[in-house]
Amino acid sequence: DQQVKQNSPSLSVQEGRISILNCDYTNSMFDYFLWYKKYPAEGPTFLISISSIKDKNEDGRFTVFLNKSAKHLSLHIVPSQPGDSAVYFCAASLFGNEKLTFGTGTRLTIIP
Amino acid sequence: DTGVSQDPRHKITKRGQNVTFRCDPISEHNRLYWYRQTLGQGPEFLTYFQNEAQLEKSRLLSDRFSAERPKGSFSTLEIQRTEQGDSAMYLCASSAAGTSGGYEQYFGPGTRLTVT
Fold first, then answer.
1. Closest alpha carbon to B79 in B60, B95, B54, B106
2. A77: part of which helix (H) or strand (E)?
3. How far apart are CA B113 and CA B87, in angstroms?
4. Per the omega criterion (within 30 degrees of 0), is the bond before A112 cis?
């Protein structure tokens, strides 16, 4: 059973525009969420996280939104840059439990 | 700035052989994790340590897999009698408390295992 789902395998966005990556989860007990970026032949790189007590967290060009009632989170990247082209994974955990459950990833391509 | 390191980066082995991977976490992190990633999937949790103690193991971790962290620093993951289904990227991560109270995990570059 896939508890964390990223239904869009790929996304293409023009440079300078907003990229929106989506993630849904089924386990209502999840209360901590993270986004990672992965380049080929490298490990995932941590981008941004949010706990369930918040509905928004910003870090520079990256903003994560959490809608607990819909069990949905999204990552906004503004403005998109060519270096943002990578595979993005969302992950979820139970606060205080160390195991991360990942989605299957979305490949983002930024078009110059 | 030393992040998480893993060795080797690539390993090709024949079915039935044993392999061992090493992970060196970020020095001030006391938590260390192992994940496995196959093509088209996200990383899947295998096990984690807090200091020397192995606190959780996934049901994915069969009896052929064993992980250790003897002094609470580096960790090793051993796979005995490898099978072709073990071919995957093995990722190590470490963590300390995050600013929001959760635990961001920082990953190494991974060890790609190919079993022929």
1. B60
2. strand A72-77
3. 5
4. no
- Pair A102, A89: CB distance under 8 Å: yes
Report the 3 state secondary structure along B76-93: EEEECCCCHHHCEEEEEE
Q: What is the pLDDT along chain A (112 residues), one digit of tens a residue?
A: 789 999 999 999 999 999 999 999 999 999 899 999 999 888 999 999 999 999 999 999 999 999 999 999 999 999 999 999 999 999 999 876 678 999 999 999 999 9
Give the minimum alpha-carbon distance from A105 to chain B in angstroms, rounded to a whole number: 6
Residue type present at position B87: S
Any A CB within 8 A of B101 CB: yes
Pick from B41, B102, B107: CB nearest A49: B102
Residues in chain B: 116
